[in-house]
Amino acid sequence: MRITSWTMRRRVLVLFTVAGLLLAGIGAFAAVTAIDSNKNLDVLLDKTGPMRVAGQELYSAYLDQETGVRGYALSRDAKNLQPYEQGVAAEKQLLARIGELNGPGGRADIRADLEQVRQLAGQWRADVAEPVIAGGTAAAGAGDARFNALRAAIDTLQADILTLRDEAAGAARRTASVLVALEIAAAVILVLVGGLMLLLLDRLVSRPIAELAAQVRRVAGGDYERRIVSAGSPELSSLAGDVDGMRRRIASELTEVREARTLVEAANQQLELKAEELGRSNRDLEQFAYVASHDLQEPLRKVASFCQLLQRRYAGQLDERADQYIGFAVDGAQRMQRLINDLLAFSRVGRLTSEFTPVPLERVLTEVKSQLEARAGDDAEITWSDLPVVEGEEPLLTTLFVNLIGNSLKFRRPGVPPVVRVSAEREGDEWRINVRDNGIGIEREFADKVFVIFQRLHPREAYDGTGIGLAIGKKIVEYHGGRIWLDLDVEEGTSLWFTMPATDA
């Protein structure tokens, strides 16, 4: 497998594994070297130094022995043997000390030197010291020769101890150099690993990420057709592939969005044209309704006036059928006048407008109750509570409540005093206002018909009116930005809801 195909994680893992193995080897070698260095230092501090001191003291002990023997030989005074006796005691201790310091696994030449010193010291005492102490004399020329040989043996011992010290010092210096070299090697390995790590990060992460970011910025700037690639680690190459896939999807969706926007713009233009035509048609229809109803007023008044004049002047002078025909004509003219007036009122809603102002519905209901007082009679009950202040046209809102409450008074149940209650509740950014009565109610199947203009649910003989009241109410509510509907879940009477935008003022 080619190294270039390795992931960044694998490369870092291999780099740190190799570095860790090298550092572990250096650490193990350094530990062994440190143990050897400690041994050499132990030899210097705990062996060679005390051994040299003991060797010098041993030499002094032999000098004391020689001095004591010489003094005793000259004076024959037992006091002069004290240095000899002290020297012999010190000799035993120092020889044992040097042998102990050298140890069983110590240098053989030092052990040989110690043995040589013991033999020569024993010969000197046998040939020189003991005969003199016994009262005799030493063999001629034996004293100086034996003691000089003993002194030479001690010098050889000191020289071998010094050689041991020099070897231990040299070994300590070498191990110290090795430790320094190992530290330098470890530092070099760390520097190399750090350098390789920085190189890997720069070549496989930093620069490829910067290049990838630059490509992404160019795509974000509008060059959606530019392909996104990365020459970094396999992870970044995979990331670049994912980003490029996202770029392709975005480019494809943007193409679809542009096409859809073109279609939407064309549709909006068509809608604007249709809306303009519809607005113009509505204005023309409203103008036509207003003009037609207004222009029909004069000839209709003449027809109604003359029919009423015929009814007053010639009633009873013609036959019964003629009186019936005249009555039909008067009633038709009057109904036609009411229809025209209602149509005129319907066409005026939203056409003849004024500024919206804060309107307290409490005041509107007070005015409505006053207007409906004659129709309500003494037994009717019209109540309201906690009504809000809304933005709108007060005359139109008055007309709205006159129509709604007027219907409640009109469609009362026989023999039951009408009760009308008006309430309001806040829901989000709008007010929900309810007009509830205890009248005859409206069947579920007629829920959508009651708001159609001139739609009647009862014959004219049962209830008067043209059937335009709720249609006008619906138009007023929608003009104020609300909606109106019939509550079908009530068990008795009629419940109408409509909404008005709420203001926080």
UniProtKB/TrEMBL annotation:
Coiled-coil intervals: 147-174, 250-288
Enzyme Commission code(s) on record: 2.7.13.3
Family matches, as Gene3D superfamilies: 1.10.287.130, 6.10.340.10, Histidine kinase-like ATPase, C-terminal domain
SMART domains in the record: HAMP, HATPase_c, HisKA
Cleavable signal peptide: 1-30
Record domain Histidine kinase: where: 291-504
Catalytic activities: ATP + protein L-histidine = ADP + protein N-phospho-L-histidine
Domain HAMP residue range list: 203-255
Pfam families: CHASE3, HAMP, HATPase_c, HisKA
Keywords: Coiled coil, Kinase, Membrane, Phosphoprotein, Signal, Transferase, Transmembrane, Transmembrane helix, Two-component regulatory system
GO molecular function: phosphorelay sensor kinase activity
Transmembrane segments: 178-201
Name of the molecule in the record: histidine kinase
Major localisation: membrane
GO cellular component: plasma membrane
